[in-house]
Each structure stands twice: as C-alpha cells, then as structure tokens.
Amino acid sequence: MNTLYVVQKLGPFRCWQSKLCISVMTFCFISQLAEMGGRNIFAAENGIIAGIRLSGSLPDGVGQEGLLGDVSPQLSRFLQRLEKAAKDESVRGVLLSIQSPQLGRARVSELRDSIQHVRAAGKPIVAHLISGEPLDYSVAAACDRIVMPPAATLAITGVRTEVTFYKGLLDRLGIQAEILQVGEFKGAGEPLTRDSMSPQLRKQYEVFVGDLFEQMVEQISEDRDLKKKKVRELIDVGVFTPDQAVQSLLIDGIAYEDEVLSSLSGRSSDSEIEFKRDYGKRDVDTDFSGFTGLMKLVDVLSGAEKKSQKKASKRIAIIHVQGEIVDGRGSVGMFGGSAAGSETITKAIRQATEDTSVAALVMRINSPGGSALASDLIWRELDRCNKPIVASLSDTAASGGYYIAVGADEIVAAPGTLTGSIGVVGGKIAIGDALDRYGIHTDVVSRGRNAGWLSSQQPFTASEKDAFRATMEDIYRLFTSKVAQGRQLDREHLDTLAEGRVFTGRMAQAAGLVDMLGTLEDAVLRAGQLAKIPDPVAAERLLLPKPRGLFDEFLGVSGIHQPYPHEALTSEAIAIRIFKLFGQSGVNDALVTRLSSKFRLLSLVASGQPLMLLPAVIEIR
Question: Which of 37-46, 195-204, 604-613 has the lowest mean pLDDT?
Fold first, then answer.
C-alpha cells in the first residue's frame, strides 16, 4: 500500500492539499494500527477480523429468544459478542462500527468495560466512528484507535439537559393540572404547572449536569492523553470535521470501512485474514415451511425458552427492572417502551429466592420510578429474601427505582447513572372546563366530602387536597425511613440528600447513597463474593423475568393495572385535544409523536396516585 492509493480511495476533496494531508494522516494511522505494540497484528498465518456493528437501541433486560431477540437485540447479547471475541483464539482484532446507537451513560460504561476486556486479551480493537455524538465518541475512545469516514462529523459539544413545559398549552386547551409534591426539589409535575424551572429544580440540574461534564472531560483526557484544559477548549469548539479531529488528536485517521480492512489485510501477504462481518451474531432460522417450520414459528411467537445445558449449581439470578414501575404485570413492548410490573418483578424475586441453585441475586435497575405502591411491594419481596442481593444501577435508577435498590445489601452504580430523587409527587388533571368548551357536560351526584378527590372533572377542593397531601406525606416518611434503614444513614444527613434531589452515580457514592462505582459485571462479581461462590464470573446466570411471547404482546396481555378509570380518559383527552390543535396549525407529525411520548410520563404524574418519579421529563445530551 502507498500514499497515492489512499488518496484515490478517499475520493474528491476541496483541493489537492487536503487530499495529501488526509492521506498522510490515514497512512500514519494504518501504519500504527498494523504495528500496535511493536508487532504486526495480522502476522499469523490465518485468523479473522471480527466485525461488530453498534447501532440502534440496546436496552437492558432479558428480551426475547430466537428471531425476536435478533430483530431487537439486548445490551447483554451485544456484550456477549465482545466477550466472545476476547476469548476466541482465531480472532486477531476487532473492527467496531458505531452508527447512531441509542445509549445512556451507564450502558456506555458497560460497553467500555467489555472493550477493555478485548484489549486486555491482546487483541486490538479499532472503532469506525460513523456517528460522532458525545456518547458514541465515548465508546469509540475506549478502543485502541478511532477512524472516521471523510464525510462524518464529530460533535463533542458538552452536556445539555432540556425540560419542556406545557402549562401554556394546557391553559390554551382549558385544562387544569393540580400536582402536589413532598420534597422541595421534587419537580416532576413542574412541566404541567409552570412555564419554566423553579429555582430549586434548576439548581439540582446545574449540579448533576456539571458533574456529567467533568466526567466527560476526565474521560477524554485519559483516553486521548490530553490535558484537561485542552479538552475543555476542544469541547467549547464542539463540532469537528474528520481532518480537524485528527489534527486535534481526538481521532487517529480518516477512511472508509473497506479501506481500513483492505489496508490492514494487505500488510501481510503470506497470511489469510478473513473479515467476519456481524461476528458473534446469532444465525436466525427463518425456514418456516412444512409442519416442522410451523412448529418453529409457534415456538418463536410463544416465546418458548431454551433449556440450559449446564448443571444448575451455584447460580446468580439477574432480575431486570426496566421502565416505569407500575402495578400489575407490566409490559415489554416489541417495538420499544416498557413498564416494570410489581407482580412480575416480585414473582421473579420469589422464584430466585425459592430456587435452591440460586446463591445470590442482582437487581439490574433502569427506571425513573413510578407507582409508590408497586415500588414498595417489590422492596418488601427483596426484604424477605434471605440470599445476598446487590443492586446494579443502569442509566437511571431514581425515585421508585432507588427505593427498590435500598432493599439490596449493596448498591453498584455507573459514574453517570442518574439516581436519588427521594421524594413523592402526584396529582390530577381536570378536563371539565375543556370539555365544556365543546358542549360536553357531566352531571354529578355525590355523598361524602371527599368523594370527588380523583375526579377528572374539577380541581381539588381544599379538603380533597389535604387528604391527598396526607397520603403523599405518609409515603415520603416511608421512603426516607427505608433509605435510612437500608443505607444506615442518620436522619439529619438524609434530609440533606432527600427532598427530591437528583445525583449522578459518582455524586451518590460520595454521599453514601451507593457503595461503589462499576458495571453489571462488577455487581455480579460482588454478589458472588457475598454468596461465597468460588468463581463468581464462571457461575451460571439465571435471567429474570422470563420474556413473554409475541402472542402476549399482540393480544395485549400486559396486565398494567390502572386503578382509576379517569387515568386513561385524562391521557386520551389531552392527546386528542393536542393533536386537534396541532392539526389546525400544521405542526409536523414528528413533533406530535415527540410530545405524545412525553405526555405518557406526564399523564402518569397526573394519574391520581402518589408516585416516586424523577423530577420532570429529563432529556440529557
């Protein structure tokens, strides 16, 4: 290979000087890559380059088996592919293609940890960074080298959080939102009751956004061997073309995927190096012909599970709590969205507790919280368990999610986990005036001063508001007592951590709300140590809850409990009014869809139940 070849392959640029500059940088990158550690990484007579593509949504959880699991893969399966590459003696190196994955900071930490395992096995891993958003770059920076295609853009613009407020829209629709909160910083209802952040809400956002920013600076500084001052300067610039990124030492080279592969393979003419695209991905059997094929299809649709071939001895159960916490069975949607049902999670905990082969439990929590009652029922089942329990906090484990975590013996969080939010919020939305505008009138016959406390027709009376607040304050006392007990904190110190305050995982560790920083694997290891398993890493894992089949999802067997009929009415009425309003003003469908997803959470806030839920609908970029 020579420099001219790279210039030709890189395609047209603005001038020959740019071509020469980029070609030299790419040549240097490829030379460094091929001679990593003073050796040619493809010098073996044969072997493979493992191609692994990181894209789309990679949620926590168990997911489906077979065809459905491969259509919508889980994070755990992706990590297994990286671990397989680390252990596979035929793998000489890994090319990780990164294109717009939908990840949170804790899941990025899981990926970075697995990448380090590949590198520790002496196998170089190269990131082909197609999308260059901050979290994409965080994954890429854990690799030995980073290369971007010529037309890509690197955007390391810092950390930004957005909260959208709807009070003006609700006023325009004639809808009244009445939301109460226990905890000065518990602002989950503010998007419905205010036009902007309260000083308390803004203060806590400034604190945890500042910590996430510092984590970003420290990580780039360490990964790219740059001074922190220089990193801050680069973040303030924010947006880089690939050649600017190379000059700033943020990436190592510029090339298309095929160029990197052909150049690396060409370094050793006497070797037989094969590029195996989609390395480790399961082969999907799609032959459903004949009777045998029909039976396979039925197994796929019903979610039939595969029998373990290992001897069930000293297992560790990993129980996933994914999505909003609700009463009933919850839901795991095929096409995104999920809710953790108290009935399903408590059943999984009970199964692990009663299984004599299970030595320890790990609660993997990725939830902003939800129903206070559902959270408490899950906590109680953990409290009854007589086996070691470790909580592993994913991207978000706050409010009700943190309430569950304090039922564990120890808590492990990622540095960027959002957690805490010890407080209670709840209320209702009164749509009576809005309906009156369209000639819809509701007559009422009632006995009892507070009989209409959850009616969606009118706001709270003073007596109804007092009754509702009393239930919330009692739940807040329950919440804080559970945290004080589980974390062994005195009430005076706890008061400085409660009131709805939100922390990153790193801040929570310093405050005593979590025990250590780490990944799910670290939590599994710690659970094994507490259970005195000789080799926790090698122990078989029981993943719970078991996934339901496609038939369940299509037939709507989700079992989400809605204790009050007005909940669905309120949410539906708001959606109809907003869609009608937007239809008249010509707002595009994308915005309507975005607002609809936000109102799913906000309608939960206004469901008439006391909730343990994160303050506001948080979007962090």
Answer: 37-46
What letter represents residue 511's amino acid? A
Residue 602 to residue 593: CA distance in whole angstroms? 14
DSSP string, 275-287: EETTTTPPPP---
Question: Which H or E run includes 427?
Answer: strand 424-430
Token pair 């091929």: residue: 34
Domain boundaries along the sequence of the chain: 3-157+238-276, 313-620
Q: How far apart are CA 483 and CA 42, in angstroms?
A: 54
Encoded tokens for 449: 């001063």
- Which residues does 221 contact at the CB level (< 8 Å), separation at least 6? 227, 228, 231
Cα-atom radius of gyration of the chain, to the nearest Å? Answer: 27
Sign of CA dihedral 220, 226, 229, 235: negative
| pTM exceeds 0.85 for this model | no
pLDDT digits (tens, 9 = 90+) for 58-84: 888 776 554 555 555 689 889 999 999
The confidence band for 452, taking pLDDT boundaries of 50, 70 and 90, is confident
At residue 1, the 3 state secondary structure works out as: coil
In angstroms, the CA 226 to CA 248 distance is 10
Query: Does 3.90.226.10 match the CATH number of domain 3-157+238-276?
Result: yes
Element (DSSP H or E) covering residue 239: strand 239-240
Helix axes 520-530, 105-120, angle to 10 degrees: 80
The pLDDT, as a whole number, for residue 557 is: 43
Fold agreement between 3-157+238-276 and 313-620: yes
Q: Which fold has domain 313-620?
A: 2-enoyl-CoA Hydratase; Chain A, domain 1 (3.90.226)
Q: Say how many CA atoms lie within 13 Å of 417 toward its Cβ.
A: 37
**Token reading at 433:** 């005036």
Q: How many CB atoms lie within 10 A of CB 511?
A: 17
Please state, in angstroms and rounded to a whole number, the distance separating the CA atoms of residues 315 and 385. Answer: 16
